[in-house]
Known about the structure:
The complex is a heterodimer of chains A (446) and B (492). Chain A is mainly α and 446 residues long. Chain A is built from 21 helices and four strands. Chain A has helices at residues 9-16, 22-41, 50-70, 73-77, 79-91, 99-124, 129-149, 154-159, 161-171, 181-185, 192-195, 223-227, 242-245, 252-270, 276-287, 292-322, 326-334, 338-356, 359-364, 382-412, 416-439; strands at residues 175-179, 196-197, 200-201, 233-237. In chain A, helix 6 runs parallel beside helix 14, helix 15 crosses helix 16 (292-322) and helix 18 runs antiparallel to helix 20 (382-412). The longest helix of chain A has 31 residues, at 292-322. Chain A is globular and about 70 Å long. Chain B has 17 helices and no strands. In chain B, 72% of the residues lie in helices and 0% in strands. Chain B starts with 5 loop residues before the first helix and ends in a 14-residue tail after the last helix.
Amino acid sequence: xxxxxxxxxxxxxxxxxxxxxxxxxxxxxxxxxxxxxxxxxxxxxxxxxxxxxxxxxxxxxxxxxxxxxxxxxxxxxxxxxxxxxxxxxxxxxxxxxxxxxxxxxxxxxxxxxxxxxxxxxxxxxxxxxxxxxxxxxxxxxxxxxxxxxxxxxxxxxxxxxxxxxxxxxxxxxxxxxxxxxxxxxxxxxxxxxxxxxxxxxxxxxxxxxxxxxxxxxxxxxxxxxxxxxxxxxxxxxxxxxxxxxxxxxxxxxxxxxxxxxxxxxxxxxxxxxxxxxxxxxxxxxxxxxxxxxxxxxxxxxxxxxxxxxxxxxxxxxxxxxxxxxxxxxxxxxxxxxxxxxxxxxxxxxxxxxxxxxxxxxxxxxxxxxxxxxxxxxxxxxxxxxxxxxxxxxxxxxxxxxxxxxxxxxxxxxxxxxxxxxxxxxxxxxxxxxxxxxxxxxxxxxx
Amino acid sequence: xxxxxxxxxxxxxxxxxxxxxxxxxxxxxxxxxxxxxxxxxxxxxxxxxxxxxxxxxxxxxxxxxxxxxxxxxxxxxxxxxxxxxxxxxxxxxxxxxxxxxxxxxxxxxxxxxxxxxxxxxxxxxxxxxxxxxxxxxxxxxxxxxxxxxxxxxxxxxxxxxxxxxxxxxxxxxxxxxxxxxxxxxxxxxxxxxxxxxxxxxxxxxxxxxxxxxxxxxxxxxxxxxxxxxxxxxxxxxxxxxxxxxxxxxxxxxxxxxxxxxxxxxxxxxxxxxxxxxxxxxxxxxxxxxxxxxxxxxxxxxxxxxxxxxxxxxxxxxxxxxxxxxxxxxxxxxxxxxxxxxxxxxxxxxxxxxxxxxxxxxxxxxxxxxxxxxxxxxxxxxxxxxxxxxxxxxxxxxxxxxxxxxxxxxxxxxxxxxxxxxxxxxxxxxxxxxxxxxxxxxxxxxxxxxxxxxxxxxxxxxxxxxxxxxxxxxxxxxxxxxxxxxxxxxxxx
Lengths: 446, 492
């Protein structure tokens, strides 16, 4: 077992302080306000819009890295979470979350994630400040409704598309919040970590920390650190992906999200490559329509279906070898795709971060009365970026292979290689597809 | 009636306050369009209709080229070249067709109107073979063209900075950018030879390149060469400012490489894609293909005269011709001419491959007829009607936003912004699907009008305010939602 970071007094005091995560929320809230203002009322061109630069060039590429390093820490300081808390504090009706949401929340998240990605391509969100602004307004309304009606952070737990993504990524994260079972066994405090006390609220994510065995629902908000009277809460550093090796109750919908994200990474890459134009032209001939919505939807469905179908085939083959059902194999090993998801996601966005990073400064200068420079926005050259991308993909492939192997070993013991083999092939093929996509020249966002 | 407890009253008051704030936000958004940072349609004209910006751009290029040709032809005629008279008449007709075909944005209306005003006097002078009157009209055209160019690059184009391309290819912008890059290099060369006036013209060209490169930045397929070009500009500008010839020549090298890559990437993209059947696309394609046809013939002649380098350039020109003709959705009016142009491509290609000069010249001969037919089909049959459906859809007369038939002696517009109908989006572009990039499909939502923005932001403010107010009322009535009693926590 690794060391408990909360043994460091300073960190413990920070998390126990009422200022945490308030200070971070205030900073994030201020930046968020600026972003929304810029997106809705600032320059119409993404090229000149600070909101676009901060959101899609800086935040979106950094966020998966943050998930790997600090789990769902972002969700603790997210302005939407803070807004939900605020609305709930003043006008919240704190009704129980409907069973439907609890049961199908992850499917709603899957659907929302797919829908937003589709809408981005068809209606324009990322490259259109107004589109990005409207998306934030829609999310804001959802958060306000959720905070006004339901208990705790129902939005973050059951509805937020980024929450679903971060939950999956955070499973591979390097920091975990857990409790000391020995202390909790002796606890007489009547679950104040769940219900809250004078030191702070109960877990906003509907979790009973004592039973917490996953990073997915924990946002590192520190509420349980404040309320626990026995200092049972521990924050530990662990090897990346470790949680994925031992998931006791794999969920099909979470595995589905993991593999769908792979498809989304494909789509995001393909549509920003030069080959997209000839592909689109070919599709136009095939579908006999020049409607972008139709042709993109065809591409989108195919791109999402490919990894899902590949995982299904791998699960089918594995089922023949290990005697388990295809569904169980799909759910169990779908989590093994997460490291490659993260690598593909970061690698794709690394290009935007490093090749367009200066856009954040460039677009901010006009706000202080300075002219916008017209030079290159690149922080480093393309060869360096590509090298980092391949390195990340290599790490992602290795991580996914190792995770698949560990999952197989934890379930099938000596027969692990039989279960692993189909997934080894799957991960290798997905890795090769990713490498192929990253070999091609990519367009910029700004 | 039982009065609400003090705490609940406070909550209700707070909720009402939030609602009021939301309504205020909505009304503020409605009352301050300037806060949007966007220009009104009257200011940007077609700029706010991204659909027509390419139409305006390509028409500007076509117009200024024809005005230049017209002035040259009039001068030739003054010097005794009677053939120049007939060609000048053709040019006048083309200028009229171009001016009348598109909806000019308000920023360009005064200068476009000045050119339009010169059409009738020039036509009359040419018909009467009145050389002094033709010369005077040519000078008016020259001044109008000069002013139009300044208004175009100085006023209108910057308003489009960074705007996304819509249905049209960035063909017009590419043509403009590559021409200005070429001119810039030529001007520095002339300055090197002692022509001091070329220095200032070079600076102007540099400014235009800067504006055009920024305008084109949203076309992602050319991101790399555009970045190279943009990165090279400050050094060239500094060299020109300091009148440092050596530094200018040095700084031009990366610019030249960027320009080369731009051309290469552009035609490569063009070769892989097919365009929408859009008037602006067709107009840009016509300008480009006719230029390449002329260049090809010139290069073959030079090759015949012993310039071996011209062989490779001719092959490039031929490839571009093929790319443009395959890329564009040509209209029926131009189909025959384009068909005969295409028919020449393979024979010329074989001849060039075999390095057979005689065979190449034989193969290229029909191109002269094709080029001529294409030009007549373009200006005579297609252009006058090309934008008509869109104009009709906006209650216009097929004369763009010009006041009436130029040759009919209509008075010249003096203050175009006031005198002409407001610039109107060219509706024909709206239904045309994009063909440029993934961003193309996203552009349906790219430009929201200030009114739409006000309505959307206000609507969201109102909805959120209503949700909060409703929640507050329910909370006050049901008494739910209180914090955990006596514990200070928020969750029960």
